Amino acid sequence: MVMPLKSLRAQVIVLLVVTLVIYALIASYVTISILRSCAEETAVDKAKGDLALAEALIDALYPGPWEVEGDRLYKGGVLMNENPIVNRITRLTGDTCTIFLRDVQIATTVPGPSGKPAIGTRVPAPVRRTVLDEGRDYLGPANVVGQPYQTAYRPLKNARGEVIGILYVGTPQTQIRRMVQKLMLSKVVVLLSVLSFFGFFMSTVFTRWFSPLRNISSTLKAIARGDYDRALEPPRYTEFEGIAEAVERMRLDVKETVNRLNNLSNFGMRAVSLVKEEEAYRLLIHYLKRLGVDEALAVLIDETHRRGRVAAYYSRPAQKEEYFSEPVCRFSFSFPVLKEIELCQAVRVLSPYVVDNVSDDLGCRFGCITDSEIKSYVCYPLAVGGRALGWVKTASRTPNFFKPETKKEIEGYVSLTAAMIANLRLSELNRYLSLTDPLTTLYNRRFFTEYFERLVAEANRRREPFSVIFLDIDQFKNINDTYGHEVGDKVLATSARTIKESLRETDLMIRYGGEEFVIVLPGTNLKGGVTVAEKIRRTIATTPVFLESGESLFLTVSMGVAEYKLGTGQTCEEVIQRADEAMYQAKLKGKNLVVAYEEDSEGRPVFRSEANGTAGSS
């Protein structure tokens, strides 16, 4: 029966229905706009954060400046053209990633029309103007290989500050469209349900019908503000359960992703302050313990002997956490893989080896397992630049413990740890090279300057003087002129080795420059220093240097000895100068002589020497 419109009831119903429709349309439009805006803001924030993470990961894995050679782009000396680092970033963030040489893609995970990576395509013109021409970041929508993306671009600059390329991460905008379309469909369902069941009573329950949408909108706004702990209240009506469930799942996924990125960020920030390798293993084990693993093992590779060494071990059931600087017998006997590292699957293929359930999966015959109740484990290679430094094994007594997000997080920790170890080793090597002479392997003058302050402090503390010998090889220029610099280098290396064999372990010998050496004798007075110097002089004079031609050279040396006197406040330069002056006197008196520097009662220098067969005493 059709109700006449002249009826007040019909008019009220129609008015309420029309009002409901208009309100529903307005609410839908506002909600969709808010959702789109929140989703776009979230996408921009995520792209911005992922861009920073990508840049930090590249810097950690390939420390050094960006440089261009022809059509090739290098980072820290590593070729970036088609470099798989973009795949790692995509796996870590879920975004597509591209590295541009100027405006041309050279490494990317963005698929082209054929489905393969779109190598060689160019950056859009607006992005080029902002990033390459103006040198600024670009954040926002852009056309990527013909598809709309929410993007973030950052200029790559060389050591001179010139923009030579672009780093990009982005997410397809289709995700935002799908979310909006799903919301529009749910709005239609809500409107039809309300018109069908509550037409006359809409005026009294209007607000309650749309409260789920307000909750969804509030939750999305909270997510956009960075508040991921605000749970979505269960909807009052089944029509909204799908939307609420999707939004709640999205909230949890975003929260988990942000927490994982925060953990990686905190891990990285703590890592940059480390100065020793053991600190890196302690940091790694600390974060693995937070994930709830039952067992963890970090193994380093000895490149010289091609063997593995356990550096860190953790067992939650046994309540053990140990760190080792030397090989441990109990591990060497238990794990054959330590003696033959090629047996390790993770090291061979440089990718994680996963066993989700030891009862069902094919496990590693050489797995480093100490707990018989382990049910699942993953081995990660500690690798930098395609070179394995070792591996990390994580295990659990729970089958299928390692979820995809857990594996990603652990892989991030292990990758950063590998980069840390490589950087620490490089820093240590650089420091060693900066303080040693490559020809003689002796410490150099720079090291002696740093060492002298500690030496003086120790001498004053013990109330013991020390002596310094300044040694110069006689006629060394003639040796270079006669036999060449190659023989001269051999003479220097042989002499350094011969002299060191005459010293104690506590004594220090440095190459001061050219054919000059300085020897420090802690706890030795002037008389003792002269005795040591005389011993060195006789040893050098009687030790031949054999040449490749079959000839043998006999060398002589001139030496000056000076003593650091306690409480005088003498500087390093002053002590060296006195020993040098004594050595010069030895040269004047015919060479092949030891001369000691002393002072008379009025503080004037006195040089004393002993006869040695070629020079008289002074």
What can be said about this structure in brief?
With 618 residues, the chain is of the alpha+beta class. It has helices at 8-61, 85-93, 125-133, 174-197, 202-209, 211-224, 241-271, 277-290, 329-334, 345-349, 404-435, 445-462, 476-483, 485-501, 526-542, 572-588; strands spanning 66-69, 72-75, 78-79, 96-101, 104-108, 138-144, 147-157, 163-172, 295-302, 307-315, 320-323, 353-355, 376-384, 387-396, 443-444, 466-473, 508-513, 516-521, 544-546, 552-554, 557-564, 594-599, 605-609. The chain contains 16 helices and 23 strands.
Q: What would you say this structure looks like, in words?
A:
With 618 residues, the protein is of the alpha+beta class. Helices cover 46% and strands 22% of the residues. It is built from 16 helices and 23 strands. It has helices spanning 8-61, 85-93, 125-133, 174-197, 202-209, 211-224, 241-271, 277-290, 329-334, 345-349, 404-435, 445-462, 476-483, 485-501, 526-542, 572-588, and strands spanning 66-69, 72-75, 78-79, 96-101, 104-108, 138-144, 147-157, 163-172, 295-302, 307-315, 320-323, 353-355, 376-384, 387-396, 443-444, 466-473, 508-513, 516-521, 544-546, 552-554, 557-564, 594-599, 605-609. It has a seven-stranded mixed β-sheet with strand order 15-17-18-16-21-22-23. The chain has a six-stranded antiparallel β-sheet with strand order 11-10-9-14-13-12. It has a five-stranded antiparallel β-sheet with strand order 5-4-8-7-6, with helices on both faces. Strand 13 and strand 14 (387-396) form a beta hairpin.
